[in-house]
């Protein structure tokens, strides 16, 4: 019966497993079996209790159905006779039935226990039996084991894609995965989570670098993997360049010359960058930091930093431009120049060189800013200079100083320069001159000095003019085209003067003046004729003198010319009445005209000296060869004479004496020619007594005295014969005298022949005897104009012992009946015939010429 029941129960159980899913409990009075479902969760290795009703049934049967199978197999039962554990129970863990109940406890739960446990319980078997089926679904869960992390690439390149896998050996699902990321500095964050063990990471970046671990969790537990380092490979980024000292301009970085400049390059990269520096595209340094100590202006240029990632073989580059600033050399230079047609000034300040350009600033007596808005216009050329235009209101004082301050960022101190403005100290000067070739007339105007220079321009008649030039201006006119008498004006403008200055040239033909139109002079003297320009107003050609013959005068022995551009003095030397008297002409011309002036030279003779009278004359011895004379001058107080000529002439020979000296050739000649006056010249006007010697004792003479005045010879006095001496001693002397004279005459003749033949060899001797043909003597001895001119020009000398100063006396142009050949006179001296007995001392004066 029990077996039948059991079989029935099993049958029901089988069908209900397939069909019944409802857990509703319904007491079926009509003998229906009651089904109850519960779910129980257990963990592998742990314990679990499976309940079978709340009260102990009379009978029960625990069965087990393995998932995936239909078979229901008994595990333990108690049909009122104690529990009977089946062998199957051993595979389901340590299974025991809890006493006083039908509940089963399983310890050390195996995974195999997973399945449907069914407890068929029978109650009240004795009375109204009730059957309960308890279905207990036992789920055996496995805790997650420690996962381990796998990455497709632990060194991914930035931008690439990778996966991460969280590997897990055991663990009942569903399993949740969490990926944790720990940054280098320790921050931890959940990077990803989900129910898959693999995640893809696309577009990896450097922020993904760090520690990763995965945490796997299920209903039982949660386990975390070991951490794993992910190293993102990247870079290099575009480098960053830091320049110290930092100074940036619109053109890039800048540094001051001689500074130490450091360039630091940084480019993010993994692995770290390698750096190479380039200057103007040539490699100069390897390493992140390029340091230039004492940088120079030549180091200006482009600096490039190249960063390399050697792992990826990638590179990046950054270029900066670095300008080295340096100051200009020296100091600024200042100048001032005229502006606005010389009505205003421009101040220029220049300081070339330097980088960047220095800043220049003018200071000085400039119009105050804001004062009636007249602000000097400051024009700055950014390159090198600064110019200020000073308005005319500022140009008041003559001399002002302006200073230009120059500063440069590379210089600690500013430097400066100054310039001064002033009016030229003098007035404009005009003058004219002619080119050497007389082609052009130049009108020159100058106004020197001043800062800035003045502007000069010419205005002349007929459109003759010349535009402005600084400092000086020359108007060039063709010779002869200048206008006579019309002014040519030079205008001079200086910015510091409101008024224009002028200077004028009026071109006029020259006018010559002389001190005296008529110059009269005594013969023999030098005379100066003067000629000068009335004014020194125009370039005048040289002043020329023409003499009385109309011949241009040059410096000769006759004429002496002294001249400057303003005057010319002509000296006529040793004037002669006939040669030099006349009209002299002084001539000159200039570009405008010609002029000449006549000067009349009148050469006059000196007035005739007063008459003189011989008051006493007598032989002073019996030899009759010397006569002592004494004379008087009329009207002596009036003066007017300079000397005397004392003359004697042979009047007659004493009877009986003549034949004795016919042998003398000279004597022969003497007697053939007309009587001749022999002269003694007395230069001392005070002398009144004179002795004439060397007379021929046998001859009768006449004497006369003539006063002279320079070259004018007065009237001769009445000729007189000397008185006889007191003792007549002629006879004693005459015999000896005649013998001596014969010898003397002969010797004299020979000597004279010799001298005449050798006159060139011994000119002094010749001149002494015959007189100088052209005397250089300045003795102004003139013969009266009415005396006979011409004839012998021989000088007369008293060679009878008055040697010394007298022989130099000459009468250069002696042309007078008073003079004849002296030779015949001296040689023909003979004692007067009447004095034969007298002892005579005869002096042959020719001997003295040997000196
Ligand atoms: C996984 O389960 C098996 C069987 O239960 C066990 O042998 C093994 O040790 C478990 N592994 C880990 C990592 O727990
Ligand atoms: C890291 O953590 C600190 C504080 O723990 C936080 O202030 C900081 O923002 C975190 N950094 C990141 C990258 O999350
Ligand atoms: C995993 O989770 C998603 C939703 O997050 C769900 O749609 C999916 O069914 C789950 N898969 C498993 C195997 O649990
Ligand atoms: C990850 O990527 C692989 C192939 O690239 C793909 O087959 C897989 O489905 C992806 N998984 C996820 C979670 O996107
Ligand atoms: C990395 O993180 C920083 C700060 O958290 C962020 O500014 C930067 O954009 C991130 N870089 C990338 C490539 O995502
Ligand atoms: C470098 O280049 C700069 C700018 O192009 C140039 O001024 C400089 O002279 C160059 N320097 C050299 C040494 O070539
Ligand atoms: C400059 O000034 C002069 C005289 O003042 C004048 O003749 C000339 O025409 C001026 N020139 C100019 C360009 O103004
Ligand atoms: C202007 O000043 C300069 C220098 O001080 C001086 O030589 C000149 O004579 C002055 N001129 C006038 C017109 O005052
Ligand atoms: C030339 O003559 C002038 C008078 O015309 C006079 O003043 C000047 O002194 C003379 N010169 C000489 C050197 O005699
Ligand atoms: C100067 O004298 C010459 C003659 O010698 C004469 O022809 C001329 O007219 C005179 N000139 C003057 C200006 O008197
Ligand atoms: C000087 O003498 C001359 C000639 O004997 C005579 O004509 C003249 O009148 C005299 N003069 C005086 C002032 O006596
Ligand atoms: C000397 O000369 C005179 C005149 O000349 C002559 O008459 C006389 O005969 C001459 N006596 C002798 C001696 O020749």
From TrEMBL:
Q: In what ranges is there compositional bias, type Polar residues?
A: 817-829, 840-851
Keyword list (alphabetical) reads: Disulfide bond, Glycoprotein, Immunoglobulin domain, Membrane, Repeat, Signal, Transmembrane, Transmembrane helix
For whether the record's keyword set contains Transmembrane helix, the answer is yes
Q: Where is the Ig-like domain?
A: 147-225, 239-321, 332-418, 424-506, 510-600
> Which SMART domains is this protein grouped with?
IG, IGc2
Membrane-crossing ranges are 729-756
Q: Tell me where the signal peptide lies.
A: 1-20
Determine if Transmembrane is one of this entry's keywords. yes
Q: Spell out the CDD domains in the cross-references.
A: Ig
In this chain, the stretch annotated as Disordered covers 817-851
Checking InterPro entries in the record gives:
FN3_sf, Ig-like_dom, Ig-like_dom_sf, Ig-like_fold, Ig_I-set, Ig_sub, Ig_sub2, IgSF_CEA-related
Source superkingdom? Eukaryota
The molecule here is called Ig-like domain-containing protein
